[in-house]
Amino acid sequence: MVDYSFAKANPSVGYSIAPRGLERTLVRLDDQMNVAITGSAAARRLLPESSTSVVPLRLLAIYAARPAELAGELGLIDAEPATANVVIARPQDPDILTPPDEGDLVTAPLPLVIADLLTLPGRSDAEAEQLMDALAAADEAWKG
C-alpha cells in the first residue's frame, strides 16, 4: 500500500503567503494558464450551491506547471510550511492542468481533491468528509 501525501507525492512543492488575501489570489488565478485548484478552494466549487463549507478558507492549494513562476506572478511571499496560506505543487500528472472548457479555472479531478483534503494541514479533512457526504446524498454510487 502506498501512502499518499500532497507534500510528498508531487515533484515540487512551494509554500507562500498571499499578502493581499486568499480571495484576491484566487481571483487572479483566473488569468493563469496551466493551473488547477485543489483542496479547500476546489471543495467549495464541488459542494452543492446550497452548502457552505464547514471551515473557512485558510490554505489555498494549487497545482501548476511552474510553481515558482506562478508564485512570482501572483506576488506571493516565500514562507515556511507552518506559516504558509498558499501551497503550490507541480503535479505528477500534468494532464490535470488541462481546462475542460476554454477560459475556465481548472479544478483538479474529484478523487485527487478528496485525497488532497485528507492530507493537507489544518481542518481540510473535515471538508473532505463534508464533500463525500454531499456526494453520497446526490449520487448513489458514492454511498457506501
Sum this structure up briefly.
With 144 residues, this protein is of the alpha/beta class. 35% of the residues lie in helices and 17% in strands. The longest helix is centred in the C-terminal third of the chain and has 15 residues.
**Low-pLDDT regions:** none
Calculate Rg over CA atoms: 15 Å
Quick check: average pLDDT? 89
Percent in strands: 15-25%
Order of helices and strands: HEHEHEHEEEHH
Described by strand count, sense and barrel closure, the largest sheet is:
6 strands, mixed
- Helical content band: 25-40%
Assigned CATH architecture: 2-Layer Sandwich
Strand order of the largest sheet: 4-1-5-3-2-6
What best-fitting shape do the alpha-carbon axes yield? globular
Number of domains: 1
Count of DSSP strands: 6
Assembly status:
single chain
CATH topology: Beta Polymerase, domain 2
DSSP helical segment count:
6
The CATH class is identified as Alpha Beta
Summarize the topology.
Blueprint: H1 6-9, E1 12-17, H2 22-28, E2 35-38, H3 39-46, E3 60-64, H4 67-73, E4 77-78, E5 86-90, E6 106-107, H5 110-119, H6 124-138
Parallel strand pairs: 2-6, 3-5
Antiparallel strand pairs: 1-4, 1-5, 2-3
Helix pairs in contact: 3-5, 3-6, 5-6
